[in-house]
Automatic annotation (TrEMBL):
Required for the efficient initiation of filament assembly. GO terms for biological process: bacterial-type flagellum assembly. This is Flagellar protein FlgN. Signal peptide: none annotated. Keywords: Bacterial flagellum biogenesis, Cell projection, Cilium, Flagellum.
Length: 148
């Protein structure tokens, strides 16, 4: 491969990683906004954050396809940006951790809503059981065990 082509591939790969870094920083900010929306139960802000998060994730996926293509085209260029890639992986791990934390908050809110609904509907004292197919049932009901 010619030195000029090698230099162009390296520059393209650095540009992709720079854009991935900027997109990851935006994603971290959106995940912070999502967490705040969850904390204050702001449905509109939560929807905006969710839409932004999806858009940024799609962009990261597109950029990663480009990165993989460039790395497979030039192992030398890939080796030159390895340190930058490792930094980016750390930022992506922060995103993963924040997203998991936000998911746990969603789970807590869902449990609270279900408990409140159970109190309102009068099902709060009934135990939860598993049905024949393994699904969780909220109330005891007659179930056909066999047929003659």
């Amino acid at each position: 491969m010619s030195p000029n082509l090698q230099a162009e591939l390296g520059a393209a790969l650095r540009a992709v990683l720079d854009e991935m870094g900027a997109t990851t920083s935006q994603l971290i900010a959106v995940l912070d906004e999502e967490r705040e929306a969850l904390n204050v139960a702001d449905a509109k802000a939560l929807n905006r954050a969710g839409e932004a998060k999806q858009m940024l994730m799609r962009r990261l996926e597109q950029l990663d396809v480009e990165r993989l293509h460039l790395c497979s085209t030039s192992a030398e260029a890939a080796q030159q940006v390895e340190a930058r890639w490792q930094e980016l992986l750390k930022s992506l791990a922060v995103c993963r951790d924040q997203n998991q934390h936000n998911g746990a908050l969603v789970g807590q809110r869902l449990t609270q809503v279900r408990r409140a609904l159970a109190v309102l509907t009068g099902n709060a004292t009934q135990e939860r059981t598993y049905g024949q197919n393994g699904s969780l049932r909220e109330a005891h009901r007659s179930v056909q065990l066999a047929q003659a």
